[in-house]
Amino acid sequence: MTTRVNTGPGRLLVAVYGVFALAASARAGVQIATKFSEAPLAYSLSAFAALVYIVLTVALARGNGRLALAACLIELAGVLVVGTLSIVDSQAFPHATVWSGFGSGYLFVPLVLPVIGLVWLFRTRRLGQV
């Protein structure tokens, strides 16, 4: 039996990433439109996170495992780098981003989600479907 990236648990990943794409896009849009000058780095990073979530949602929904893999790795790196910097150099992040504090504002889902996504993608790759 083979498994595609957009079937079974992959559908749940599409749904969760879709929710995060919508939430991060709305958050970044409001922040950039209303108070960008207060924290341009933080709000730009929120917009970048939203873009990554959009790409991941589309890649998973269309079954594009390679693009999803690349986006998942970018997401994980972003969460780890921004999470670390937001703790080590809090002055650089006067306002929170989606990935600040390793996604603490989103119950750490941004930290756990790419790990789950990578496990799913590698599982489906082993089955020859990525």
Structure in words:
- With 130 residues, the chain is mostly helical.
- The relative contact order is 0.18.
- It has one domain (9-127).
- The two termini are 14 Å apart.
- It has four helices and no strands.
- Helix content is 71%, strand content 0%.
- Keywords: Membrane, Transmembrane, Transmembrane helix.
- The chain crosses the membrane at residues 44-61, 68-88, 100-122.
- It comes from Herbidospora solisilvae.
- This is Integral membrane protein.
Fill in the keyword field for this structure:
130 residues; mainly alpha; 71% helix; elongated; transmembrane; membrane; Integral membrane protein; transmembrane helix
Tell me, briefly, the overall form: elongated
Tell me how many strands there are: 0
> Largest beta sheet, briefly?
none
Radius of gyration: 15 Å
**Structural class estimated from helices and strands:** mainly alpha
Helix-strand string? HHHH
Contiguous runs where pLDDT drops below 50 for at least 5 residues: none
Number of helical elements: 4
Give the percentage of residues in beta strands.
Answer: under 5%
Helix content bin: over 70%
Count of structural domains? 1
Q: Give average pLDDT, whole number.
A: 90
Termini separation (Å)?
Answer: 14 Å
Keywords: Membrane, Transmembrane, Transmembrane helix
Protein name: Integral membrane protein
Transmembrane segments: 44-61, 68-88, 100-122
